[in-house]
Specification:
- Strand 9 and strand 10 (533-535) form a beta hairpin.
- The chain contains 26 helices and 11 strands.
- It is 51% helix and 8% strand.
- It has a single domain, classed as Cytochrome p450.
- The relative contact order is 0.16.
- The protein has 558 residues and is α+β, with helices and mostly antiparallel strands.
- The strands form 4 sheets. The protein has a 4-stranded mixed beta sheet with strand order 1-2-7-4.
- It has helices at 2-17, 20-25, 41-47, 49-60, 79-87, 100-107, 117-129, 131-135, 138-158, 164-181, 187-190, 206-220, 228-233, 238-247, 251-276, 286-289, 304-310, 319-323, 340-354, 356-371, 373-386, 402-414, 447-451, 473-476, 496-513, 552-557, and strands spanning 63-68, 71-76, 162-163, 420-424, 430-432, 435-437, 442-446, 514-518, 527-529, 533-535, 540-545.
- Helix 9 (138-158) packs parallel to helix 25.
- The model is unreliable at 192-203 and 282-305 (pLDDT under 50).
- The structure holds protoporphyrin IX containing FE.
- Residues 86, 110-111, 122, 176, 350, 353-354, 357-358, 361, 417-418, 421, 485-489, 491-495, 498-499 line the site of protoporphyrin IX containing FE.
- Keywords: Heme, Iron, Metal-binding, Monooxygenase, Oxidoreductase.
- Pfam families: p450 (PF00067).
- Residues 279-313 are annotated as: Disordered.
- Its cofactor is heme.
């Protein structure tokens, strides 16, 4: 009897692994042949997620279906189909192994929210990201870049190689952490000490502790638990998979849980402090809503900052100061209200969304410039024509940097740090490219494949910033809608202006002082995709001062 049961179990598992019913429903959509049980996971893991998507685009495009285990994903690299996907549905499916407070903390994150709370949350983010409010962060950004110039000085003097991706990560963390919480992060000053698990629970500033857990989060995301793959292999058993993962956590998952818990605890502490110190009038909104001048000197750096910090208030103009007034507001007619945990998730979410994405984008730009000395020379000429090397750029100077902006955009094309935009097909399903896609299907736009498709880009593998220089012959050839590094539609990246401003001001500040040469052996660049797509082994360069004397590094010391 036992033998029969075992044999029956094996037979059922074998049958299940072919997913006959689901595969039948998607048989009309072309795509790579799925293997038993694991679908196309093996190819994605061996070739790399973005590389596999680009290959499938070439073979089966413009729309195809691949299988994450038992889960069908309909993907496209076509700008028209992509627009239909990103503009209409706002939902996407999220898998999470977390339970309890950590789960609630995570599910409140704007990137993951699907329900009624998304709209209210997006409204709360909006004031900080209006065109005029974003510009007010220019001084924070340029000063952080100048700190990076100073940080790189010893390596430049001694000819020591550096991993510029890591260094840029310290800088972008400085920017987003400070902008989000209104607390000085000073990650560049603290350098390596900032990262890693040793920070957790020890006596450090809240910012140090946040940096420690964000680093752990990025290191462990996706690797934290091999059980994660079970979500895709057995999607019907979501509850059991969660239970298993938490009952027997792997060492990495334990670290990930600890990192997330710290993120929640420290984030909530900072929010509670700031909320308690918030004046009843709610005039914290001033920093964002006054906006408009478009000049430099952000409120986040004015004299009132130090005083308000001592009182535990959120610094005027910081993201947190604009989000706090939303606490207590009702969420539609759901009966729930936004609370302090929600606010803590948003401020931490700001760091998670804006830290690695921007660091990757900048590191990729420097990689591309190092490989293209003629483009680098054009960039240097633009900077030298603009002003003396000790001048810090501000938002008001952005019009003087069309080529620097184009260099940043062209690397976003070749190496988009967020390689896909993700949605779910709405109730009743939808028609895509003439095909019927059933309700609830995971939809993805492969930004990476679209950006490298020869149908839309001539010489797609080449780094040609001129494609983004207005009025150039190369720009005339660009297919409208084929460039979407920040996604599109209602859920388009809210931080795209912030990231572009930071990217350009950083490039200007760095290349005023230095050029960078790649250490050998880094071509072709190996990519790694988890939460974002970045260089798998960092980007190793030597740093070469362009001149003696003047330096924005001195500005950073002021
Ligand atoms: C170069 C840097 C960045 C890139 C390439 C990038 C890219 C993206 C992409 C592709 C999406 C998904 C859009 C979609 O599904 O249509 C996204 C969403 C988002 N990004 Fe960014 N991002 C960057 C920087 C930032 C920064 C600096 C912030 C904020 C500080 C930010 C905040 C967000 C948020 C909050 C969302 C979710 C929006 C929502 O679901 O409503 N991003 N980003």
């Amino acid at each position: 009897m036992v033998l029969e049961l075992v044999l029956l179990g094996i037979a059922l598992l074998i049958l299940y692994g072919f997913h006959p019913i689901t595969r039948w429903r998607f048989r009309h959509i072309a795509g790579p042949r799925p293997a038993w049980l694991v679908g196309n996971l093996a190819e994605m893991l061996s070739k790399g997620q973005v590389e596999a998507a680009a290959r499938w685009g070439q073979l089966y495009g413009p729309i195809w279906c691949f299988w994450l285990g038992a889960v069908p994903v309909v993907m496209t690299d076509d700008p028209h189909i992509a627009r239909k996907i990103v503009v209409r549905p706002v939902r996407h499916k999220i898998y999470s192994l977390h339970v309890g407070d950590e789960e609630r903390f995570e599910s409140n994150n704007i990137v993951f929210i699907n329900h009624a709370m998304w709209k209210e949350t997006r409204n709360a983010w909006q004031p900080f990201f209006s065109p005029s409010a974003v510009l007010k962060n220019d001084e924070l950004m340029a000063r952080s870049a100048a700190k990076l110039v100073r940080h790189l000085a010893p390596a430049a003097q001694q000819g020591q190689p550096v991993d510029v991706w890591r260094e840029l990560g310290l800088m972008t963390m400085d920017v987003v952490g400070t902008a989000a919480f209104g607390v000085d992060f000073n990650t560049l000053e603290k350098g390596k000490a900032a990262g890693g698990q040793q920070q957790l629970g020890s006596v450090h500033t809240p910012a140090d502790r946040l940096v420690g857990c964000v680093n752990d989060f990025f290191e462990l995301f996706g690797l934290g638990n091999p059980l994660f793959a079970l979500f895709f292999l057995f999607p019907e058993c979501e509850r059991w998979v969660k239970w298993l993962a938490n009952a027997w956590p792997t060492p990495n998952f334990k670290r990930e849980i600890a990192a997330r818990r710290q993120l929640r605890i420290v984030g909530t502490e900072l929010v509670q402090q700031a909320h308690a110190a918030m004046p009843a009038t709610g005039d914290h909104n001033d920093g964002g809503s006054k906006g408009g001048s478009g000049g430099s000197s952000s409120a986040a750096h004015n004299g009132t900052g130090a005083a308000s910090r001592q009182r535990g208030e959120a610094r005027p103009g910081s993201f947190l100061s604009l989000v706090l007034p939303f606490i207590g507001r009702p969420v539609g007619d759901t009966g729930t209200r936004l609370d302090e945990l929600w606010a803590a998730t948003q401020a931490s979410g700001f760091i998670l969304a804006g830290y690695e994405t921007t660091a990757n984008a900048l590191a990729f730009t420097m990689y591309c410039l190092a490989l293209n000395p003629d483009k680098e020379a054009k960039l240097l000429a633009e900077l030298d024509a603009w002003g003396p090397p000790n001048r810090l750029p501000s938002a008001a100077d952005m019009d003087s940097f069309p080529y620097a902006t184009a260099c940043f955009q062209e690397s976003l094309r070749l190496y988009p740090p967020a390689a896909a935009a993700v949605r779910e097909s709405p109730a009743g399903g939808m028609q895509l490219g003439g095909l019927n896609v059933p309700e609830g299907t995971a939809l993805q736009v492969s930004i990476f494949a679209m950006h490298r498709n020869p149908k839309y880009w001539s010489n797609p593998e080449a780094y040609i910033p001129e494609r983004f220089v207005e009025g150039s012959p190369e720009a005339a050839e660009v297919t409208p809608g084929a460039f979407m590094p920040f996604g599109d539609g209602a859920r388009k990246c809210i931080g795209y202006r912030f990231a572009t401003l930071e990217g350009v001001l950083t490039l200007v500040t760095l290349y005023q002082q230095y050029t960078f040469k790649l250490l050998p052996g880094q071509q072709p660049l190996k990519l790694k995709t988890s939460l974002t797509t970045g260089p798998a082994n960092g980007i190793k360069v030597t740093v070469h001062p362009r001149r003696q004397g003047y330096s924005t590094a001195e500005v950073a010391e002021e």
